[in-house]
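Hi everyone, sorry if this is the wrong subforum. Our group has a chain we'd like a structural model of before ordering constructs, and none of us has done structure prediction before. Sequence below.
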Amino acid sequence: MTTKEMMDVALKMAKYDEMPEDCGIIVEGKDIKKVLFGVDMDTAEIMLAKQLGYDCVVSHHPRNTHVDMLDVMHDHFDKLEELGVPRNKSQKLLAERKTELGYNLHVSNSRRSESAAKLLDMPFMCIHSPTDRIGEAMVQDALDKKFADKPMTTVQEVVDALEEIPEYKNSARKPVIRVGGKDSYAGKIYVLMSGLTGPGAKILKEYFEAGVGTLVMMHIPEADAKKLKEQGIGNVVIAGHMSSDSLGINKLAEEWAKKGVETTMMSGIVEV
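Answer:
Right subforum, don't worry. Here is the predicted structure as tokens:
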């Protein structure tokens, strides 16, 4: 396969019409048969791949940061609009979080791993939102089936159901309740694992006010969890970061394998 063909498989699986800004083919490659894939892949991992004879390195988290990468967060406009929240409202509420992240992005060393890959002539790409979206759909489907017609479901039952999924079962860090209690009623369960990163407490509050009872997320800052606890209107279950990232990555690797590409996992990926 070529790097473009590998990316196209990911986009198709995630139902993207075009490549989102948090993805990229940094160094193109062809005739790829052996891939080294990790959650975070930088210069050391690229050198390791070269030494071990791999044809391509894939990082889940972005390494060559696109100037418009934060626009991926606009996915929340669509998600909230489906729940009845006007996009003009969510746009204003998300602006503060985008500004905060923009300061960090502006000072980042965005060409570090790119330069190493080019010097080593190692095909290199980043696939972020597609695998997040694949994993998000997998978890939502599993929970929908598990709790269909069970209105008295508790938050602890949601945690227990997550631990039946291999990536969470095999992870060192298990799902935890960050907002709410074990006996809290879950209500409408909404899996929120795509959209680049956490959107901030103001946007999360909109999900609850739109009828969501429990958000299932990869991670949440302590400050945001504290604000949501003070509001007292919803629950948050944190499924786990590396394990949640691994869901879509493992699924994507299965599809690549059907096309003759062997993938070795490392750097945080939970294998099943």
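For your construct planning: The mean pLDDT is 97. The chain is about 45% helix and 15% strand.
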